[in-house]
Amino acid sequence: MALIERPAPATVAPVTPSSTFGALRRPVQAEGWKSWIFTVDHKKIGIMYGAVSFIMFCVGGLEAVLIRLQLAGPNGTILSADKYNQMFTMHATTMVFLFVMPMASVHDLGMMRPMM
Prior knowledge:
By secondary structure, the protein is mainly alpha-helical. It has a domain of about 70 residues. It is built from three helices and no strands. The longest helix has 30 residues. The relative contact order is 0.11. The model has no long low-confidence stretch (mean pLDDT about 80).
């Protein structure tokens, strides 16, 4: 059996977020808008999902108001027939895909816990 000499372990400098991957390094700012845009923190991502979902809830609510104003009286003149059909479809799309789905994922992330 032969003895194999192993090289001495080289000292490795600790890798900091600001020195890794050159241009693709992870941002280290803890404050400001850049820390929210480029975050990998699951809590901030959940908060952003909730905020966007609330904004889309408001947009869907405005679409619903336009639909209801059109139907409030006879011969509604708020929207044309074509615009009414578009608004009806966009309201459904906004509420299902831009409100309900993100809120379901926020709930799954554990951001929305029932109060006990």
